[in-house]
Request: fold
Amino acid sequence: MNSDRRLIRKDSLEKLFKALKQNNKTIIGPALQNGKISYKISNNYSEITSDYIQTTQSSKEIAFPRTEKILAYSKNAEGMSVKGIDIKDIPEIVLWGVRPCDAIGIGELSAIFNWDYKDEIFNNRLSKVTVLGFSCSKADEYCFCTSVGGNPGNTEGSDILFTQLGENGDYLAEILTEKGSLIVSMAEALFERAGKVEKEKFLVDVPVRFNHEDVRNKLTTFFESGEWVQQSLKCLGCGACAYVCPTCACFDIQDEAHGKSGSRVRCWDSCGFSLFTLHTSGHNPREVQSQRWRQRIMHKFSYMPDRLSVFGCTGCGRCSRACPADMNILEHLISIQEATV
Amino acid sequence: MDDLRKRAKELLEASAVKVVIGYENGTENKTRAIFVEKPEDTGKLIFDSRCIMNLASYLTKHEVKNKGKMAVTATLPVMRAIIQLASEFQVNDSNLLVLGITPESKLIEFKDLAEVESFVHKYQIEIDVRNKEMLDKIDKMPASERWNFWIKELAPCFKCYACRAACPMCYCHRCTVDFNQPQWIPVPSHELGNLEWHIMRAVHLAGRCVDCDACYNACPLAIPLNLLTKRMLIDAKEHFGGYQPAIKAEHLMSTYKPDDKENFIL
Amino acid sequence: MADFEPRIVAFVCNWCTYAGADLTGTSRIKYASNVRIVRFPCTGRIDYMLLIEAFNEGADGIIVSGCHPNDCHYTSGNFHARRRWIMFRSLCDFMGIDIRRIKFSWVSAAEGAKWADIVNKTVTEIRALGPYDEYKKVAKTPEKEVIHG
Ligand code: SF4
Ligand code: SF4
Ligand code: SF4
Ligand code: SF4
Ligand code: FES
Reply:
C-alpha cells in the first residue's frame, strides 16, 4: 500500500483522540509520572504529553508485558482445569506518540518471537495494536537511530506517522497500512489533503556516528578482546538497560501456586544479571560482568543479524539514559568500531 | 581537583595502589565512575557537586577488586559506606585506601580506615529537609491512604534491581529475592511482588543504610524507595539511639539491649 | 459481616508459648478456634517474611508470641526478635499495613489463661475489623497481568 499523505490540524489531534475512544480503542500514550515519561493508558487527551524526546520505557509492553499470566490452573473433584489466554480479552490498543526508533523496534522484537517457534500470545497481542508514530524534531546526546539504519522520520513500524510541521505547526500524516486507514476512517473529516510538504525539513538532524555493519564485522573477531572488561568495569549488573530496551526479549517462566490453584507467569529477565546463566550445579558460564556485557552487544549486533536478519538495536538510547552507571552504548559501539583487534 | 589528580598520580606511579576509582565526566552533564590504572590517565579524574554516585558499590565487585589494592574518591556518604563495609569484612586496610573529600570539597588523606572512621564520626547522618517533609506527610496520612500511596508508588517498579546494584550495602552474591527454593518473594513485578521486594529491601538495610540515596538516583523510574530506608533510620534513632557505622561495633539489628523499649508487646 | 470468622495464624516458640497453649488445652480453658498455630524453636527464628507470607495466604490477623524477656530457652532469641519487631512493625505501619492485625506477646509455659485471653481478644478485635480485604486484593494480583505500571 502506498503511503497516503494527509494533513491534520494541531487542534484536531484531540478530536482524533476522542474519535478513537468512541470506537472503543484503549489508548496508550506518553504521560508524566515522578518526572519520567512513561506510556500509560490515557483516558483524556490532556494526560498525553507531547514534550518529550523519548519515553523512559519502550512500548514493548503492549505485546510483551513485564508480567504476563500465560495460563491458570485449578484442581477440583473432577480433575484439573487449565485456562490459557483468550484473545478476546486482549483490548484493541492504539499506541499514541511512538517515536520511529520505538516503532521499528516492534518489528525487531517480533523477529525474535517468531524465529523458530511462533509465539502465539505475542502475535495475538500485536495483531490488536495500531501504532501512531510521531517523528522527532528534537534529539539528545543519547540518540543514534541514524547509525543503525533508522532516521527521525522513519515510517517503518508505524501505521500512521505524524510529523509536526514546525513548532506549534500542523501535522503531516502519512497513512502507511490498512490499520492506519482504519484509524483515518474513524475521523475522516480531520484528515485534509496535504499539499506538497518537505517533511525532512522539520526533522532533527541526528549525525551518523558509526556504521552498524562495520561493528557487526568487527565483532566476528572481537570475542576475546580486552575491550569488554574496559567498557564494563563500571557496569553494576542490573536489568535497567534490558527492561527499557524496545528489542530485549528475554523472559523467565514462574509458577505461582496457591493451594489447589495457581498460574504460570512470564516475566522479563535480563542477561545483565549474574543469575541469568547460573547453573544448578553452581557453575556460571558467564561468571563476570564483562562477559554479560559482551553478550548484550554480541546479541544485538552479531547474533541477531546473523540469525534473524535484523539488528537488535534501534538507536533509541534508552539503555544509556536509564543506566545508573552511565554506560553509554553509543560510545561503546564507536570504540568497538575504532578498536584495533 | 588538582590535589586529587596529583595524589592519584603519585599513588599509581609508586605502585602503592593498582587502581584509583573516581569520577569522570559522563553523558549530558552527568558524571560516572572511572577506574584509573595508568598515571597518565589521572587527568580524567574530576570532582564536583555532580559526583553523587556511591563509588563504594564498586569495592565489592569481582573485576574491580581483583585488580589489587584500590584507592577510592570518597565523599562523606561513600566513607560511611566504606566503614559499614569494613565492619562487615568486605574491605580492609590491605585492599583499600581512601582519598577523602570533605563536605567542603577538600581532599583529605587517611592513613587507614580507623582514621576514616574518626572522620565519619564527626558527623551525624541527617535526613534532608525535603525528604523529612515527605516522611511527615506520609506519617500523617490515615493508614489506608498510606497503603494506597505505596501501592501506587511501587506499581511502576519492574524489578530491574538497579537500586540494589547501586547500593554499596547490597553486595550479596545471592539476594533473598533471587531464592526460589523456597521462593520468598514473588518474581513477577505485580503489586504483591513489588510490595514484598521493597519490604524485604528496607528491612535488610535497616541499621546498615548510610542514606546516600544511590538507590533512588539509580532507579530509572524515580520510585521514592529511599523513603523506606530513611524511615528505618529515624526509627533506629528513636528506639536504639541512632545509627553510626563503626568498624568494630555490634550491628544495630544483630544485637540487642535487655532493656530495649517497646509499647506493643502484650 | 456478622458471621465473619477471621482466620488467624499464630507463630509461637516451642518452649514457652507453645507449652502455654498446651496448658490452655489441658486445663480445659475454652477459647476461640480461629487460630492456627505454627511452632518454631524460638521467636528468634520467626522471620518477618513469614508474617507477610501469612497475609499473602489469606490470614486476617497474626499473633507472634514467645518466652518473656530473660526466659528464652536460647538466652537471647527473644531479645533479638524484639528489636526486629520494633523495626518491622514500624515499617509496616509506614507502608500502611494494618498493624492492628499483628499482635505480639510474651506467654510463658505457665500462662495458659493468658494465651486464651490473647487469642480471644485478638479474635474479637479482628472480627470487628472484618476481613483484611485491602491486602487480599493486592495478594491476588497474579490473577491480573501487569502492563504499564
Ligand atoms: S549497563 Fe547499566 S543498566 Fe545495563 S546492567 Fe550495566 S549498570 Fe545496569
Ligand atoms: S540497546 Fe539501547 S539504544 Fe539499542 S534499542 Fe536497546 S535501549 Fe535502545
Ligand atoms: S531501581 Fe526502581 S524499578 Fe528497578 S527494582 Fe529498584 S525500585 Fe524497582
Ligand atoms: S539503601 Fe540506598 S541510601 Fe541506603 S546505603 Fe543503599 S543505596 Fe544508599
Ligand atoms: S525459646 Fe522462646 S523465645 Fe527463644
In short: Chain C has one domain: 8-143. The pocket of iron/sulfur cluster (ligand 2) is lined by residues A 244-247, 300, 313-319, 329 (CB under 6 Å).
